[in-house]
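Propose amino acids for all 355 sites.
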């Protein structure tokens, strides 16, 4: 595993935005009446009871924009201080240019964020922790004062509006969300420490290869090897968590919560158990939001603390794992007051490009 440590880089705040439409799986299944689908078994395994689904015109970037705008306004941020913006997603607006460039323009009020680095990162499940590592590294080695990381995906939108071929298990698992994390270089003695790893030999375990550059003319579904993903998640994630705690000299009792990528509830319980965490320490948001990919860790923060104004510091151990195969761990100290209430919006960007 690779260890990265950065002094003085701190999270100022976190926000999350979802569409206004929340779908109960019970109501959805009663309406669609899929063959051979056991709702009770699905809910027990995944933990999903419902999720938010974006409108046809609404993209991941639109949700990230609303979360970012809320965060910048809440902290009365001088946008000229934003030196980096990264967009972590598998659902970009365009093939070209990078969606981060468009968000840099939009969040700058149509003028752009001056003197700002902006680029996309194509990661899903591990994306929040990987993204924090990337942006903290940029800040620690530059004159960047503040930075914005935008994470999210809209797979539920894609499956709901576009793809009738996808299995009901996949269709009902995912939810749509965009998040924003504002960071600052404080020059303090605080430290962000990351442990990260990738095993490219498992790249086929979660893959969407069709209608892209290598297989441009093939009409098939994306592929997920459930057994490989389960074994990877329940073996590698707990091993890294335990190695990380040994390195930090910490124990599960030192943390208020274990905040995992919300893959499915059964996998999360297995990881918590094998890492030495109690059921009570495992933070869960998949019941309300579904699996929101790179947004799932901040989604869990928002569900747990978004309506709490307390300034008491919570120590949270985060772990993202999945597509790549990739996985990463980070220890965060945040107060509930830094985590904003959930934003609900149906707004979307009109780029004036003809269909």
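Proposal:
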């Amino acid at each position: 595993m690779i260890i990265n440590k950065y002094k003085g880089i701190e999270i100022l705040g976190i926000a999350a935005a979802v569409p206004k439409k929340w779908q109960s799986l019970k109501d959805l299944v009663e309406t669609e009446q899929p063959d051979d689908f056991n709702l009770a078994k699905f809910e027990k395994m995944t933990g999903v009871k419902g999720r938010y689904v974006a409108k046809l015109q609404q993209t991941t970037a639109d949700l990230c924009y609303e979360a970012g705008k809320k965060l910048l306004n809440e902290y009365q941020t001088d946008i000229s201080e934003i030196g980096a913006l990264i967009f972590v997603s598998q659902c970009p607006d365009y093939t070209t240019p990078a969606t981060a460039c468009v968000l840099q323009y939009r969040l700058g009020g149509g003028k752009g964020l001056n003197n700002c680095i902006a680029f996309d990162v194509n990661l899903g499940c591990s994306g929040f922790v990987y993204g924090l590592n990337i942006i903290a590294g940029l800040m620690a080695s530059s004159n960047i004062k503040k930075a914005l990381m935008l994470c999210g995906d809209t797979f539920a939108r894609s499956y709901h509006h576009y793809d009738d071929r996808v299995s009901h298990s996949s269709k009902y698992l995912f939810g749509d969300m965009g998040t924003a994390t504002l960071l600052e270089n404080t020059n303090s003695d605080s430290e962000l420490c990351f442990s990260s790893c990738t095993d490219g030999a498992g790249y086929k375990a979660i893959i969407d290869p069709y209608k892209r550059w290598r297989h441009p003319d093939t009409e098939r579904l994306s592929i997920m090897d459930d057994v490989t993903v389960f074994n990877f998640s329940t073996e590698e994630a707990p091993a890294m968590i335990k190695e990380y705690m040994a390195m930090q000299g910490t124990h599960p009792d030192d943390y208020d919560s274990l905040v995992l990528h919300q893959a499915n509830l059964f996998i999360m319980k297995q990881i918590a158990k094998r890492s030495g965490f109690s059921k009570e320490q495992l933070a869960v948001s998949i019941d309300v939001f579904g699996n929101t990919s790179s947004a799932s860790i901040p989604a869990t923060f928002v569900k747990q603390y978004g309506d709490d104004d307390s300034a008491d510091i919570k120590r949270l151990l985060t772990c993202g794992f999945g597509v790549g195969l990739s996985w990463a761990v980070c220890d965060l100290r945040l107060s509930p007051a830094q985590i904003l209430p959930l934003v609900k919006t149906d707004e979307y960007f009109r780029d004036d490009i003809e269909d």
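The mean pLDDT is 91. The longest strand covers residues 9-18.
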